Amino acid sequence: MAVSHSAFVVLAFLVICSVCTRNVDAGCPSGYKDCGYSRGCKSAVKSDVKNCGNCGVKCHSPSNATPVCSNGVCGYRCKQYFKDCDKRKDNGCEVAIRTDVKNCGRCGKVCPQFKNAVSQCREGRCTSKCMPGYSDCNNDMVKDGCETFVMGSDGDNCGKCGSKCAFNQYPFGVYGCTAGKCQLIQCYRGMTDCNGNITDGCETNTYSDLNNCNGCGSVCAARPHSSPICVNSLGCYFICDEGWSNCNRPWEECRVDIYNDVNNCGECYNTCPTGYSCKKGVCTQ
Ligand SMILES: *[C@@H]1O[C@H](CO)[C@@H](O)[C@H](O)[C@H]1NC(C)=O
Asked: So which residues are the signal peptide here (predicted)?
């Protein structure tokens, strides 16, 4: 019993000793340690991100960064196109310098803001884009930005820089730049440009034209016993032929035969006595 006990103590000592000598740096050159999982002094604790400064010390990387171990101290290096502008470790390399208008290309480089323009950071360089409807017609962004509103009524910059559109009086209408387009601005009341040819202006009187009555192409079609008329903005009406009536409903057809109808003899609702007939609009026995 005593023999086997002492044998166990010796064995235990050998095992413990072999483990402890492995983790002891004794014998490793400066900057190296034997961290156990590979034989010998393989871990360069000055630069190994898994054993930085000491065995088992892992370097973690904040966002947009890669970990580094430098002289046995954990740090991090920003990934390409990212920078740690606020020097805070918790948010890592928080700035994307290719697109950040406040840190464009480098920390603190703020892209200038010009009049009627939106500043942008593209590939790390400041650029400016005119706001919708505006243009930099004088090519001087720094001085006055996108100074010209081209989508309005500017006859010298109509729709785009330098596009001319003179204000003109045309027959029965006015032509010029409006909403960035060279176009008819307004026809006189009752007149319309039905043929789309600006030379003759607003050539059609849609307040009287039977073929364009209160609208281009709106035809006052012929109806029985009547002549159509175009009445300004009201549209088509009908003048009844002699002997016919629409009984004061001008939008209706002239279907009442007041020369021969015993119920509407001579005028609407004039009924002839029994036994009478209506001849030429007169009740006749
Ligand atoms: C436009 O109107 C003018 C004047 O009436 C005429 O001389 C010209 O030929 C017209 N143009 C077209 C394309 O119809």
From this structure: 1-26
